[in-house]
């Protein structure tokens, strides 16, 4: 347990020193919300503005993109060539996986709180008592996507291939989830297609909580995200391969 | 001297190709063991199996008379490894590098600070502790690489070519450091291709080729044995035992 | 000669990554098909009906539903009250006709998060249509929408800006592990190296785009480009994607940074270029800004072709 603490504090330090990670999870969602909100300002009314819409849908999209960062965090030691030191030190693979996963989740969640506070103040997003419920959902999402990223980074053999194409399905999920523009349909088949994107559930759960007073749905979705995240955490631990951890990102290392 | 590490019948294959075959080796407490072999001989695989980075197919490893898998944490706490690749964080200061890796061994507070200071002083980097290694010379990085591996005072230190690509001054400093460490009671397994280094610091030499040990003897006895056959240097003995063919197997 | 060697060497390298090549080949086609299928039925105006008093249902069946059903491009459906606002926000319904406190078909409240004037105009148009038993006229509200071809091209350019970066990002690795320096040792100028990389990227991207266009024209009925137009489009999309990806790679420190930057920039340029929102509906400033978006250039090119 003490080793986990040491690893976690070290990983946290590395994460908060990562300017790109912080920028991507604070500045980018704010800028994107501003841009898209401005883009569609004329289409919305006063009660619910385009800034309100994008304040809510851009954050889950950016959190989902953190999956790529998490995958690379998993490979950080292979990059830095320090992986061997972790493997012969008296620590367990579970501690390595958990410290990386938790550090990513915590830092991204802190970024989420900052962004949500910003949009609440600047765009007058009508969230009061619901603030922490939304943060709970977004933290669950951050945990889930970071766990998937960790599984890709530490537990999959084809990281070299996957790392390059991982952003394409994420962008598709964002489009289907309405991150760039609300995509609605009354066609059952197409609705099913939209629901394939986890961002659809996440966005809708926030709308339902804030505008339809449906609290259960948000907590159900959060629970599902936590369960999926836990599944991928276990997979990342079980599928953790020492050779992959050491060499996984070396050029030409493919199996 | 008693046996600190015993390896018995260690075997490893990669897709039907035997890389290490029933290897038996003993490392005595307090010695500096030179571990030699051409590329692809199976040295690195053997070392990786000993330090539990590579799964072994067969065989047993004992540390202080106990099976390592039964007391893995105890074994790992007593083990230090200096990897061939420089395994340090380029973006952390020299001090933070040593501190972090030492803290993985359970040290904290004042004891951790003392150990970090001692290790950095030992390799001559205490004055440069606040600098980040990306600004260090090759020799300084190698020394820091060693400091990260010795701060927790390992009983057994495995060094995998720790002097690759550095100037004679740095090499000399590292070799002196190794001798001092040994005098202080650290048992060292020294893996290298530099015969003159092996000759300068090792008590005993093990030569490996094609996954098996072809020679295991005290240095002076080994030199004496082959001198009678006309081989005067370690390099000549090595080439005699392992041949002169090029070795292009994958590492 | 240097340019040719850089290009040839990279083509050879890419052949070692068959899995990556295969996936980047198939993925855009699959994504275009998915995205295309969202709008398969063409643009529609979706109206929800919310009924409180069941007695009014029969009247609505007679006087409201038929009017909406005969109106061009309109669809109607009963709304679940529990998720009313969510359905409006997420675009399932553009508007909801609220009959919870009403006893007459033309007497309804129009629920929508759209702007007030648009909402008022819609309200009046629907009320008039119900009163006169006529088709609902939304001509005053209609905004230009993209054709299936334009939408597909917009998606293709967005996707290929991301995919091209996958092929260009190894430049960063070459730079970081010193292979780039070797080119310089061999007196290949940095410009030649970049052009060589660009040429290799262009060939790969062009082949992939051509395949995507071919498959789209076979399976998506609304996608119409003749042979010559397809070739021009493939060249234009490949060229822009390659320039974009090389620029992103030159300014990125690592592959992950390049890939994330490319996705984010491509998404912004796509929105700005009118892939989702008609340029005419954008604020003036953004309309001017949208001229820098390659997505807009491609949509304009499709109109010309």
From TrEMBL, chain A:
<protein>
    <recommendedName>
        <fullName>Transport permease protein</fullName>
    </recommendedName>
</protein>
<keyword id="KW-1003">Cell membrane</keyword>
<keyword id="KW-1133">Transmembrane helix</keyword>
<dbReference type="InterPro" id="IPR047817">
    <property type="entry name" value="ABC2_TM_bact-type"/>
</dbReference>
<feature type="transmembrane region" description="Helical">
    <location>
        <begin position="53"/>
        <end position="74"/>
    </location>
</feature>
<comment type="similarity">
    <text>Belongs to the ABC-2 integral membrane protein family.</text>
</comment>
<feature type="transmembrane region" description="Helical">
    <location>
        <begin position="165"/>
        <end position="184"/>
    </location>
</feature>
<dbReference type="InterPro" id="IPR013525">
    <property type="entry name" value="ABC2_TM"/>
</dbReference>
<keyword id="KW-0813">Transport</keyword>
<dbReference type="GO" id="GO:0140359">
    <property type="term" value="F:ABC-type transporter activity"/>
</dbReference>
<dbReference type="InterPro" id="IPR000412">
    <property type="entry name" value="ABC_2_transport"/>
</dbReference>
<dbReference type="InterPro" id="IPR052902">
    <property type="entry name" value="ABC-2_transporter"/>
</dbReference>
<feature type="domain" description="ABC transmembrane type-2">
    <location>
        <begin position="20"/>
        <end position="243"/>
    </location>
</feature>
<dbReference type="Pfam" id="PF01061">
    <property type="entry name" value="ABC2_membrane"/>
</dbReference>
<keyword id="KW-0472">Membrane</keyword>
From TrEMBL, chain B:
<dbReference type="InterPro" id="IPR027417">
    <property type="entry name" value="P-loop_NTPase"/>
</dbReference>
<dbReference type="Pfam" id="PF00005">
    <property type="entry name" value="ABC_tran"/>
</dbReference>
<feature type="domain" description="ABC transporter">
    <location>
        <begin position="5"/>
        <end position="235"/>
    </location>
</feature>
<protein>
    <submittedName>
        <fullName>ABC transporter ATP-binding protein</fullName>
    </submittedName>
</protein>
<dbReference type="GO" id="GO:0005524">
    <property type="term" value="F:ATP binding"/>
</dbReference>
<dbReference type="InterPro" id="IPR003439">
    <property type="entry name" value="ABC_transporter-like_ATP-bd"/>
</dbReference>
<keyword id="KW-0547">Nucleotide-binding</keyword>
<dbReference type="GO" id="GO:0016887">
    <property type="term" value="F:ATP hydrolysis activity"/>
</dbReference>
<dbReference type="InterPro" id="IPR003593">
    <property type="entry name" value="AAA+_ATPase"/>
</dbReference>
<keyword id="KW-0067">ATP-binding</keyword>
<dbReference type="InterPro" id="IPR017871">
    <property type="entry name" value="ABC_transporter-like_CS"/>
</dbReference>
TrEMBL record, chain C:
<dbReference type="GO" id="GO:0016020">
    <property type="term" value="C:membrane"/>
</dbReference>
<dbReference type="Pfam" id="PF01061">
    <property type="entry name" value="ABC2_membrane"/>
</dbReference>
<dbReference type="GO" id="GO:0140359">
    <property type="term" value="F:ABC-type transporter activity"/>
</dbReference>
<dbReference type="InterPro" id="IPR013525">
    <property type="entry name" value="ABC2_TM"/>
</dbReference>
<feature type="transmembrane region" description="Helical">
    <location>
        <begin position="20"/>
        <end position="38"/>
    </location>
</feature>
<feature type="domain" description="ABC-2 type transporter transmembrane">
    <location>
        <begin position="150"/>
        <end position="301"/>
    </location>
</feature>
<feature type="transmembrane region" description="Helical">
    <location>
        <begin position="258"/>
        <end position="279"/>
    </location>
</feature>
<keyword id="KW-0812">Transmembrane</keyword>
<feature type="transmembrane region" description="Helical">
    <location>
        <begin position="231"/>
        <end position="252"/>
    </location>
</feature>
<feature type="transmembrane region" description="Helical">
    <location>
        <begin position="153"/>
        <end position="173"/>
    </location>
</feature>
<dbReference type="InterPro" id="IPR052902">
    <property type="entry name" value="ABC-2_transporter"/>
</dbReference>
<feature type="transmembrane region" description="Helical">
    <location>
        <begin position="193"/>
        <end position="219"/>
    </location>
</feature>
<keyword id="KW-0472">Membrane</keyword>
<keyword id="KW-1133">Transmembrane helix</keyword>
<protein>
    <submittedName>
        <fullName>ABC transporter permease</fullName>
    </submittedName>
</protein>
